[in-house]
Write a structure and sequence with these properties.
Layout (H helix, E strand, L loop, with lengths): L7 E5 L4 H14 L2 E8 L7 H9 L7 E5 L1 H14 L16 H15 L3 E3 L8 H12 L4 E3 L1 H4 L5 H10 L15 E4 L4 E4 L29 E8 L2 E5 L2 E2 L2 H14 L4 E7 L5 E7 L1 H17 L2 H20 L5 H13 L5 E8 L2 E8 L7 H4 L12 H20 L2
Parallel strand pairs: 1-2, 1-4, 2-3, 4-5
Antiparallel strand pairs: 6-7, 7-12, 8-9, 8-13, 9-10, 11-12, 13-14
């Protein structure tokens, strides 16, 4: 049963079909005043239609919030995550996961600003996003009321939703095949597609699925060479030109798109317990990850680098599961940020037909010593005879074990 005490609710509103249905449903079922919040995270769509559609559905102009969050998104969420080289289950660059805490944060801010007593999201009851949104809400405003329509309404399936939309004259978008489109989430870091034919993990995704990249087969036969500059673990320039965080990621997206970089077809383990199949495109992020690991390879001490790699899966899982605002994520972030203090320099890359190839790296903070590694005369920089004692000490327990086994 709807909570009749809810008088005003802030809806995370994309302007798409699902959230437009939710907007009308909130008005009808809850009788509440609805405030819409649309975040520009670089999804590549004009946001004007979201405003006009909200107005068409009866939302007052003063209750429509549209905010450009691209710089904040990359600077305060994407870049800190990339300092950790975070990958969920070894492959997913967390493009959807990392956007949810920022949306949650802004929704709560608007709720406090407008005196709203509830917030609402459009995530389904089968997915991870419901967890991410709601953990964010509760972490920032413990007493907030949350409305999750997909867990409440009585619609029996997709066709029932479409009937509701037709009844209330809510426009229904079509894809290139004349059908309701794939479920797509996009921001400046990535795009993801789920549903329809993608629900069968044995079937190759059709070309219509891809939003952000050309195929590697269609990429140019000539490589593209670029250089990325880093300061304290964050990218700050491309080919020597200083740029803002969002501008850097947008430029890398263009370069990745044109060279067929960043496609993955993934079956992942959702936090709620099921496996799901999705197609992800992260062109700029794929380039950035390779470059960041390359600059770390010459500036980060072995012990620090290996500890980071041990902690990374835990850090990535926290983000995937929605615990961005948790104390353990913040503790790990402090450790990661400490490790990045000397991670500065330039990485040279070759982009070619879906591949990101590191061809050079340089830094005035480098720990790499040609004198130590050379096969030529090292002028006494390294005494190779020292290695004998080092090896024997490390072999001591192995020798002891084998001697016991021979008794």
């Amino acid at each position: 049963m709807p909570d009749t005490s809810v008088k005003k609710v802030v809806l995370a509103y994309s302007g798409g079909l699902d959230t437009s249905i939710i907007l009308k449903w909130l008005q009808e079922v809850y009788g509440a005043e609805v405030i819409t919040f649309t975040a520009d995270l670089g999804q590549g769509e004009e946001l004007g239609p979201a405003r006009s559609k909200a107005e068409m559905l009866g939302i007052k102009p003063e209750n429509i919030f549209i905010e450009d969050l691209r710089e904040e998104f990359v600077r305060d969420y994407v870049f800190p995550m990339f300092r950790a080289n975070a990958l969920y289950e070894g492959i997913y660059l967390l493009g959807t996961s990392i956007a949810r805490p920022l949306i949650s944060k802004k929704q709560i801010e608007i709720a406090l600003q407008t005196g709203a007593d509830a917030v609402c999201h459009g995530a389904t009851g089968k997915g991870n996003d419901q967890v991410r949104f709601e953990l964010g809400y509760y972490a920032l405003e413990p007493g907030i009321k949350i409305i999750a329509p997909w867990r409440e309404w009585s619609f029996s399936g997709r066709e029932a939703l479409l009937d509701f939309a037709r009844t209330h004259q809510i426009p229904i978008a079509k894809d290139k095949e004349g059908e309701a489109p794939f479920s797509v989430d996009a921001n400046l870091l990535h795009s993801s597609s789920e549903g329809k034919v993608l629900e069968d993990p044995a079937v190759e995704p059709p070309p219509i699925v891809y939003q952000r990249t050309i195929s590697p087969e269609e990429a140019p036969d000539k490589a593209t060479n670029i250089s990325i500059g880093f300061q304290k673990g964050d990218a700050v320039s491309i080919d020597g030109q200083a740029m803002s965080p969002a501008a850097i990621l947008a430029k890398l997206n263009d370069l990745g798109r044109d060279n067929g970089i960043g496609r993955i077809d993934l079956v992942e383990n959702r936090f709620v317990g099921m496996k799901s199949r999705g197609v992800y495109e992260t062109p700029g992020g794929t380039i950035l990850l390779q470059a960041h690991r390359a600059i770390e390879s010459i500036t980060l001490d072995r012990g620090a680098a290996h500890l980071k790699d041990e902690l990374m899966p835990r850090y990535a899982e926290l983000i995937y599961n929605g615990f961005w605002f948790s104390p353990e994520r913040e503790m790990l972030q402090a450790l990661i940020d400490k490790s990045q203090e000397k991670v500065s320099g330039t990485v040279h890359l070759k982009l070619y037909k879906g591949n990101v190839i590191v061809i050079g790296r340089e830094s005035d903070q480098s720990l790499y010593s040609e004198d130590l590694v050379t096969f030529e005369d090292d002028q006494g920089a390294y005494d190779q005879q020292d290695a004998e004692g080092f090896i024997k000490l490390n072999a001591l327990r192995l020798r002891t074990l084998e001697m016991r086994n021979r008794k």
